[in-house]
Design goal:
Blueprint: E1 2-8, E2 17-19, E3 21-25, E4 28-29, E5 35-38, E6 44-45, E7 57-61, E8 64-69, E9 73-76, E10 83-88, E11 91-97, H1 100-110, E12 115-118, E13 146-150, H2 151-158, E14 174-177, E15 187-192, E16 195-204, H3 225-231, E17 233-234, E18 237-246, E19 250-253, E20 258-263
Parallel strand pairs: 13-14
Antiparallel strand pairs: 1-2, 1-14, 3-4, 3-19, 5-6, 5-12, 7-8, 8-9, 10-11, 11-12, 13-18, 15-16, 15-20, 16-18, 17-18
Length: 265
């Protein structure tokens, strides 16, 4: 088994970036989902509500995270001095406000008041203690530092669909090849390169999987979620991929070997 591809998402729910490698820090992949969009009350905003967010590009440039807003231009995201409490799922986190020009551009593009916020190092959002007993942190990702998916599982899903979907629908950080379809269901601990990961929880999927990452449009037949729900529904939800937590620092690269160090029998 090998790492087939790697992705980072500098801004939660905007377009991701395929990379050849990334470093791991305390939050997960360095720079992953430290930025997020919120509404006027500080509640997090994603493609669940605004699928056209998929059309907002992200890039890592010499000045940091850059975004491209259709019809509005390109903007560099730099944390400001303003602070606000923001909410992501059940967690409330202290965040720094972002640049007003970018806020205005994204608000005009989507027709409602939005603003960018940044999670600084001094903010601490804990990974679910019921799943991870260690006092581990996560950025603005839904709940865990990384998501790993299996190309063979996508191939099997696509064999059931009238129109094949891209792995980007599932927004993984790590995509592996060389495993049997759905073998990830039994993984408990894995090693990628020289870094070990605990498998914390199967990833339950939502309507975001129905958004085409190239157009920002939802599938009218709610695929691939509809098909997945017919045979991948468990007590944890409709499952595709596994949430994982790194057990140390290091660098992951495309081509790294992947070993299952502990698996359910």
């Amino acid at each position: 088994m090998r790492v087939q591809s790697l992705f980072i998402y500098p801004v939660k729910s905007l377009a991701g970036i395929e990379v050849s490698s990334f470093e791991l820090d305390e939050f997960g992949p360095a720079g992953d989902r430290r930025w997020m969009l919120v509404g006027d009350q500080g509640q997090f905003i994603t493609q669940r509500q605004l699928p056209l967010l998929a059309n907002v590009s992200t890039h890592i440039g010499p000045q940091g995270v850059e975004i491209g807003v259709p019809g509005q231009g390109d903007f560099v995201l730099r944390p400001g001095n303003g602070r606000m409490a923001v909410k992501v799922w059940r967690d409330t986190v202290d965040a720094l406000t972002g640049p007003e020009p970018a806020d205005g551009a994204i608000s005009r593009y989507l027709g409602q008041s939005l603003r960018f916020v940044y999670m600084p190092d001094e903010s601490f959002r804990r990974v679910d203690p019921l799943r991870v007993p260690e006092n581990r942190r996560v950025g603005f990702a839904d709940g865990f530092p990384l998501l790993i998916t299996n190309q063979a599982s996508l191939d099997e899903l696509n064999s059931r669909l009238a129109n094949a979907v891209d792995m980007r629908r599932f927004r993984p950080n790590v995509v592996i090849s060389g495993a049997e379809a759905w073998s990830e269901d039994g993984w408990q601990s894995i090693t990628v390169g020289e870094t070990r990961f605990a498998v914390a929880k199967p990833c339950s999927r939502c309507v975001m999987t129905t958004v085409d990452p190239d157009t920002g449009l939802k599938d009218p037949d709610t695929e691939p979620l509809r098909t997945l729900s017919r045979y991948r529904k468990t007590g944890d939800g409709v499952i595709f991929g596994q949430n994982i937590v790194h057990q140390g620092s290091g660098r992951l690269s495309v081509g790294d070997a992947v070993d299952i160090s502990q698996q359910e029998s």
